[in-house]
Design a protein that fits this description.
Chain A: Keywords: Cell membrane, Membrane, Transmembrane, Transmembrane helix, Transport. The structure holds two protein chains of two kinds. Chain A is mainly α. Chain A has helices spanning about 1-5, 10-30, 65-100, 100-115, 120-130, 135-160, 165-170, 175-215, 225-230, 240-275. The two termini of chain B are about 50 Å apart. Classes of the chains: A mainly alpha, B alpha/beta.
């Protein structure tokens, strides 16, 4: 792991450091916060940077810094869980599909194509309208909307591996499909699937933030970074940090993860060519 | 006269700068204009690396760290990338091993052949196309006027390789580099391609560097041979001297590997292990007549005795690999029967039991893809042990060590992943995995084709030794008739899915043969440098993709000794010759001897 980071280009290292910082804040943010997230600490709203509160105050005078530290948890952990769910379920179905009879494979693939054709935002809006917004619902919605994409990537990788001779050897041995999928194929597609996982994480961060911005994501009194942007929108005209800083926070999280993935991919293709 | 190409004290290293590995170590040679030099050695000997330095190119991760590479007046070793771009293609051209990968499948051949001439601005499109047509004719390509209008997938592999040579020669380069250009081709195709290359190079007085691991091929092409081992020159002499009077022991080893032609002693065999009768198989849906849409094999029968080696030969597309897949149950036969150890063998693998799977093991050609790169050697060998014999823990470990010893590999390899092994080592592991199951029959599909001559010879020796010790039957599939002749007790020749000749290994030692077998035998290059020029040209297969389904002789379009109408209208009879082998041909023994 350390060696992998060491061999990355500069942009990758910057990304890794940034991503690590965000992960740290997500884990320990609430304990580091100088104030309680929901405590009204100042009479002044939309205070500027510096001053008594490092990142100023929000539309009702709460400490922006504390609120960001508290909100990061949602913006990191919900997408992390959702992406993990989407990728693991997608990969498992893809593996099953790759070692099954072509007809089974066809049925599963076409069903996934149907799912992938539903726009994720509209799907989320409909689901939230039906079931209301809560963290478990958000988790389920985002996991379902990104699972077919993950399935498609995993399936195309798995089908390539499934045609290699070592899988044929295992087949002639009479091995079960489970063994073929998990022991022979999975280890060889794990690397690109990890990169895909990172990418899905970014997508979910953006989807969740935009849902929260529409007021349909994480519900008050809790707030993720997207909700922070929305509730302080009236400060935009004054250039209040309360609306700008959470937006920058979302941007840095997604860019950091993207940088890491890009450099991992570069390293992987370079290693493949060198072999 | 000064030499055209002078390479002096060339060093190339690879790997990280802190711990470099020297892969070309103080190599010097020179070449006169119009001469052909061959670079020969095993993989890893640095032959391709040296050839690429003549283009001023080092592969990613490699660096030219010293010496000079003079082509004419230019030192390719210290030119900037921008200057090199002007020289490559115009002054020095390159013909790669796999033409199929070098052509862009979505553009017409002509566009790609003239591209470099237009890019360097040497001639107008019209001139370039006219030149290309002459080159096509020189390379004896069929219909040179129109072949350029086709797409790469519409011509055969051998033709594509020649088209690639045309692409290289279009700018009249001073130097052409051929990098194993015939390694991926069938023997019969190889002859044509070599011949075309030789004529084209002589006609234009081009200097050529020919990279190969096959000494017999090189003997046909080269004026001088440079023998390389681990990046060092071990011998640099004219071709005649190398062939007749090799100085270095390594060169002698290479020569011996080619001349290895000891005939088999007939062993005593008793019981039938595998009995295959009237197999028909193919791809696609099964039609109403009960045959597959694209039939490949028709009416193949074979009996394999315990401890016997059966060879199956044919060109690519002859159905030999399909036959192996049928036996392994990967492709269920549409008709016919198989009997293993006196019990009927279901045709599909899904219907076979564990014991039946255990007794038939397959060894694939390409050990790179046949071993799972993310498993350790111990896991690869351990899995069949657990699966078939329930061996676990210490017992398994011991058996893995025994197996490694059996294939002559150090036991310490068990903990390594197979990415770190050499080609020969991988092939031994591949073999050991098949042996781990303790099978009755091993199917070897082209197990030596991807290996260097010396390594391949070692694998064949191992195979013979193992068979004698373990008394297993081997079905040995190959396109290389000389290997098959010397190794096998029984030989089966396939052409387009039909058995054209079948007999004992010793009966293949000399003529008469079926005309197709005759073509295969005579297409194997020998160490005689005159061999290529004395060969008559093989008839290009008119349309190789068409699968004949009727009973007529399938070889008739290519047959040099066709008997007029009889071959076109009547099914050939299966004759039994005095040597005991059967031949599917209209010609009788006397006529086959005479050909």
């Amino acid at each position: 792991m350390m060696a992998a980071i060491k061999s990355m280009p500069m942009s990758g290292k910057v990304g890794a450091v940034l991503a690590a910082c965000w992960l740290f804040l997500a884990l320990f943010g609430p304990w580091l916060a100088p104030h309680s997230a929901n405590e009204i600490v100042a009479y002044d709203v939309f205070e500027p940077l510096g001053g008594d509160y490092i990142l100023g105050t929000d539309y009702i005078g709460r400490d922006v810094f504390s609120r960001i530290l508290d909100g990061t948890r949602f913006t990191i952990f919900i997408p992390l869980l959702a992406a993990a769910l989407a990728c693991s379920v997608g990969t498992l179905i893809a593996l099953y599909s790759a070692v099954s009879h072509p007809r089974t494979d066809e049925i599963i693939s076409r069903f996934m194509d149907a799912l992938i054709s539903i726009p994720s935002k509209i799907f989320s809006l409909v689901m939230i309208a039906a079931f209301g917004s809560s963290v478990p619902i958000l988790l389920t919605i985002t996991a379902i909307s990104y699972m077919p994409g993950s399935f498609r990537i995993a399936r195309s990788l798995a089908v390539n591996v499934a045609n290699l001779d070592f899988v044929t050897v295992a087949r002639t041995r009479g091995e079960s499909r489970l063994y073929l999928a998990v022991k022979e194929i999975l280890p060889n597609i794990l690397h690109p699937m990890l990169a895909d996982f990172g990418l899905r994480f970014v997508f979910v961060v953006l989807l969740l933030s935009s849902l929260s911005f529409l007021g349909l994501g994480v519900q008050p009194p809790e707030a993720d970074l997207g909700s922070l942007v929305r509730e302080n929108l009236s400060g935009l005209a004054e250039g209040a940090p309360a609306v700008i800083v959470p937006a920058i926070a979302i941007a840095t999280i997604t860019i950091a993860v993207n940088l890491v993935i890009d450099s991992l991919r570069g390293a992987a293709t370079y290693a493949a060519r060198g072999r | 006269m000064t030499a055209h190409i002078i390479v002096e004290h060339l060093y190339v290293e690879a790997g990280p700068t802190e711990q470099p590995v020297t892969i070309v170590d103080d190599v010097s040679f020179s070449l006169q204009r119009g001469e052909v030099l061959a670079l020969i050695g095993e993989s890893g000997s640095g032959k391709t690396t040296i050839a690429l330095t003549l283009l001023g190119y080092a592969r990613p991760g490699c660096r030219i760290i010293g010496g000079s590479v003079m082509v004419g007046k230019d030192n390719m070793a210290d030119k900037a990338e921008s200057q090199l771009a002007g020289l490559r293609g115009r002054k020095v051209a390159y013909v790669a091993q796999s033409a199929a990968a070098a052509f862009n499948p979505s553009r017409r051949i002509m566009d790609q052949v003239v591209e470099s001439a237009l890019m360097h601005g040497l001639m107008t499109r019209k001139e370039a196309e006219a030149k290309a047509v002459t080159l096509f004719a020189n390379l004896s390509l069929p219909s040179p006027e129109t072949i350029g209008r086709r797409y790469p997938h519409e011509v055969s592999g051998g033709q594509l390789q020649r088209l690639m040579a045309a692409m290289a020669l279009i700018c009249d380069p001073e130097l052409v580099i051929f990098d194993e250009p015939t390694t991926a081709l069938d023997v019969t195709t190889q002859v044509d391609v070599l011949k075309a290359f030789k004529v084209a190079v002589k006609a234009t007085n081009t200097t050529a560097v020919y990279v190969s691991h096959d000494l017999a091929v090189v003997a046909q092409m080269a004026d001088r041979i440079l023998v390389l081992q681990r990046g060092r020159v071990v011998e640099n002499n004219p071709t005649d001297r190398i062939l007749n009077d090799a100085e270095h022991p390594y060169t002698q080893q290479l020569l011996n590997a080619v001349q290895n032609n000891d005939t088999v002693q007939n062993k005593e065999h008793s019981d039938v292990v595998l009995d295959i009768g009237d197999i028909e198989a193919g791809y696609g849906k099964i039609t109403k007549a009960g045959k597959p849409e694209i039939p490949i094999l028709s009416g193949i029968s074979l009996k394999v005795l315990r401890g016997q080696t059966v060879g199956i030969i044919g060109e690519s597309g002859s159905g030999k690999s399909t036959f192996a897949r049928v036996i392994a149950g990967l492709l269920p036969a549409s008709a016919g029967y198989m009997v293993l150890n006196n019990q009927e063998l279901p045709s599909a693998i899904a219907d076979r039991g564990k014991r039946e799977c255990q007794h038939i093991q397959m060894v694939f050609q390409n050990a790179d893809t046949a071993l799972n790169p993310s498993h350790k050697v111990a896991d690869i060998l351990g899995r069949p042990l657990t699966f078939f014999h329930g061996l676990k823990g210490e017992a398994q470990k011991e058996r893995v060590a025994e197996l490694l010893e059996l294939v002559k590999l150090p036991v310490a390899l068990a903990d390594r992943k197979c990415g770190a092994l050499s080609g020969g080592q991988k092939q031994r592991i591949n073999l050991a995995r098949a042996l781990a199951a303790e099978p009755s029959v091993i199917l070897c599909d082209e197990v030596t084709s991807a290996l260097d001559t010396v390594v391949a010879a070692a694998i064949l020796d191992l195979l013979e030794e193992l068979q004698a010790r373990l008394n297993i039957a081997i079905v040995f599939i190959s396109h290389d008739i000389s290997t098959v002749k010397s190794l096998c007790d029984e030989v089966l020749v396939l052409y387009k899915g039909k058995k054209v000749e079948h007999g004992s290994g010793s009966s293949f030692a000399c003529a008469p043969y079926h005309p197709y077998t005759d073509l295969l035998v005579s297409s194997v290059p020998t160490l005689d440098p005159e061999w290529l020029d004395s060969r008559k040209r093989d008839l290009d297969a008119l349309d190789i993709s068409v699968q004949n389904t009727d009973d007529l002789c399938r070889f008739r379009d290519r047959c040099p000794v066709k008997l007029g109408d009889q071959c076109n209208t009547e099914a050939p009879p299966l004759r039994t010759l005095t040597s005991g082998k059967s031949v599917l041909c209209h010609r009788d023994q006397a006529m086959l001897v005479a050909q």
